[in-house]
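Dear colleague,

Following up on yesterday's call, I've attached the two folding results inline so they're easy to grep. Please treat them as preliminary; we haven't cross-checked anything against experimental data yet. The first protein's sequence and structure tokens come first.
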Amino acid sequence: MTERPSSPGTVYLRGLNWIGDAVLSLGALQGLKKARPGIHVTVGAPPATAGVYRLSDAVDAVIVPPPLLSGVRFDAAVILPRSFRSAWESVFLSESRIGFASEGRSLLLTDPLDYRRWKERHLHQSTYYETLLQALDPGTRFEPPRFSFSGEDLAQAGQRLRTLVPEGDRVLAVNPGAFYGRAKTWPTHHFVTLLDQLLSEDAGLHALLFSGAADRPLAQEVLRRLPHPRLHSVAGRLSLPESAALLSFCDALVTNDSGMMHLGAAAGIPGVALFGPTDPVATGPVLPEKGQGIRILSVPTACAPCLLRECPIDHRCMERLLPDMVLPEILRLLKEKDSE
């Protein structure tokens, strides 16, 4: 094991490729910053998640792509992904390299951690990042991820929202997609039924569809099936930071298990997350220190969690999660939001 500097220095963190994972990793970075306030953290992130790291005050710099042969050196490197390539990149950046031993990369790490041991404990994904950064500083404790928006971010998001929703009306954010696969998505007809009921019952409620570019067809299908004057869409049209800032203005969120679920949690809004084939113990939303956060809704089925991208049978874990089960939760959240 390489001896690391005892005083705060510079750390290179190889960021993650998936939005939800990147958001969760912020919680461990926040804990590191609290344990070692003077440390300088540079994140090397792919374009898909660079915006997540730029929204965190626990990150001092973000670079895309990683600076392989630039001559820049760090006191330590922490490699969050488990890929061989991410460990190979770090060899050029620091003499002290921390990561989980997997993908045949142990010899590239000076501080290899036991991935199998962590995996067998069946813990939440947040503990994966906490364990890695505790190898850098044992005082690191995971905190609920949070975003730090600039005044300009918030002003632009507020202006964008006012072009769609009259001031004073409430907004339900809706994410009908999930990049990992269709098995994770609540059926479109359930989304349509739920939104039709909500918009019919509450004349002061607007629904706003979000998605990444890849999931935009699902949002378009919801719009096609439910052409309602108070159903709007920004799906696939905003950058990740723009989506996060706009989410912070919404009153509640209904979402699949997805990156948008974690974005909403970090943006500080309450909501419900619809789980089927994935494991909420491992990937569920992190509850905030204060407030309700995002609650998991699911129905028990013998085959879940299967962790499959596509359902080989009848998608029962999501089909049986009926709109009538989700509706009361959304109404409760909106009522409690009104009473704040």
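Below is the second protein, in the same order (sequence, then structure):
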Amino acid sequence: MSLKTSRVSQKSIRILGTGYHVPEKVLTNKDLEDMGLDTSNEWIVQRTGIRERRVADKNEATSHLACRASRMALEQAGISAKDLDLIVVATVTPDTCCPSAGNWLEAALGADNAVSFDVTAACSGFIYALNVASQYLLAGTAKYALVSAAEVMTRTVNWKDRSTCILWGDGAGAVVLALGESGPEILSSALHSDGKNGSDLLLPGGGSRTTPISHESVDKGLHYLDLINADQSFRVAVRCFMQVISDAAAGQGLTPTDLDWIIPHQANLRMFQYISKAFHIPMERFYITIDRFGNISSASCAVALAEAAQKGCLKTGQLVCLPVFGGGLTWGSALIRW
């Protein structure tokens, strides 16, 4: 299945503000070695590009991280939380199954006039949430929308499984959107999914297939995130990344080499090195955070975009492509003229 949103009028969807937050605690590869995990810094860096990741405090939930990122985005946008009509949170690690992380975030921000809900699309969640919020703005049913992608992934992993626990980190990113004629413009967004291969990245615990929690479900490890067929997933992810990058550029009559920045879901550094060679795009045009933050699922692309914006890396008029890929299977992209 595929869905696309493109510019439909002179007024288009603009990014008014960006924000991000990562927890203070740093967990390095050396720390994992010291925990007794059968791995090494060299092994992890060679296979993933990750050197360290952030870990939320035991008292921090997903909405707490989202709140900090959102306040930064709102401040930059120059509006208050009470101006918001819509809050969409992308996450696979909500504070609670009910209410949603979006509801918790709405309350924390004091966004009394906003409707809030969650979107679940694994590592593709930020682009899915952008696309969903765009529909409300284009329909005229919302004036200001907040999109936040936030995750506490370190609570979903088995710390004895070196194939998965080395990958994930915690954090949140956010953007404030509105229709307008100035500021970074979302030129297009595209969504894709293939439910037939959804079990390749699986977290059964907590869903209706595995509730209520029991000694049996815990003993079976059903409450841990499980990455199945990692090698095959790597190849599929690369193919999907390349597809959406090509499609995003082609939609503007361009080729991938015309893109100024690629800010991808931070899945694996080797993927981006392969794509760089295949498209003849210098690695300097890929904005990379995986070495410092690991894979933050839906939040990784949002965090990278906000950090790049806050650091002044993105210049007016530049074309920025945000390709994503995640469990579901889900993938997609957004193209922004900064």
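For the second protein, one point worth flagging: The chain has one domain: 1-338.

Best wishes,
A.L.
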